[in-house]
Amino acid sequence: MAQQKGTQSNHVPEIRSGDTVVVLHGKDAGKRGKVERVLRNPVGEEKRAGIWRTTSSRPLSVVISGVNIAKRHTKPRQKMSQTSQTQMQQGGIVDKPMPIDVSNVMIVCPRCDRVTRVKHERLGSGQSVRVCGHCREQLEPGA
To answer: What is the predicted pLDDT for the residue at 53?
Structure first.
């Protein structure tokens, strides 16, 4: 039976926030970093403001600390706070990590310190866990 559009799959995600990954392709190839966020992009088409737009063909991307940095130029602006005081937001050049497609990164096993593919195994309780393909050790997020 085919999976219906818009439904979530029930599998354990390959990459979670807190995992250490290495970048395989692009200008930052070979760099390691910790995953800050996992972004899920909608697949297909959506209607926004009366216009049909195609959304991302890549369903997952990750933001990694210290990798794929873009420079963002910001103007100084006034901020209104709840206590009715105006504060100045400082302007300048801000470094901002940008998302990388999940197919361009690979997880690093914290035990054997090797780049590995993620395998899935079931525990005795029936819970599905991620394990390293080399040493069969559990991959804990943030480890």
So the answer is: 62
Q: What secondary structure does DSSP assign to 9-46, as a single string? A: P-SPPSS-TT-EEEE-SSTTTT-EEEEEEEEE---SEE
Domain that holds residue 132: 109-143
pLDDT at 45: 62
Residues 6+ apart with CB under 8 A from 2: none
Can you give the pTM of this predicted structure? 0.70
On whether both 39 and 93 belong to a single domain, the answer is yes
Both 90 and 129 in a single domain? Answer: no
C-alpha torsion 29→30→32→36, nearest 10: 20
- Would you give the end-to-end CA distance of the chain in angstroms? 37
Q: Examine residue 13 and state whether it is found in any structural domain, yes or no.
A: no
Q: Say if residue 13 is exposed, middle or buried (CB neighbours under 10 Å; 0-12, 13-18, 19+).
A: middle
Q: Which residues of the chain have pLDDT under 70?
A: 1-12, 42-50, 52-58, 84, 141-143
Distance CA(120)–CA(11), nearest Å, equals 9
